[in-house]
Amino acid sequence: MRRPLAKDMLKQLAEQHGVCVRPLPPLGRTGTVTGVTEVVEVPCGTTLAVTCKPCAERNRRLRIQQIREGWHLADEPAIHPERPTEDVLALVRVRAHMEFEREALVSRGACVATGTRMARKIEES
Prior knowledge:
By secondary structure, this protein is mainly alpha-helical. It is elongated, with a radius of gyration of 28 Å. It contains four helices and two strands. A two-stranded antiparallel sheet has the order 1-2. The mean pLDDT is 84.
């Protein structure tokens, strides 16, 4: 009879004690007053039980508590975008003309590097 792998035993033991199975690389935290550096273990925080059961269960309980406390929205927020100003419309028109001219040049086999640089300059402004 074969012995179980140490990796499998450690994973099972971690799950039994509710510890993250796939923690992120350890982070160091230095106290500003004392100057003492300590290692902080950060759990993976996954929501899928297939990946890490303890983190998924912890996140499930957190979501249940948030719903119980009313953290969720009953209705979707209404998003009312602003109407575009004349400046915005003018920039869109210029960009459209430049793109049309660029495609015409490309179809003729011309080099369009300078046109691309001009388009970037207009986008930045």
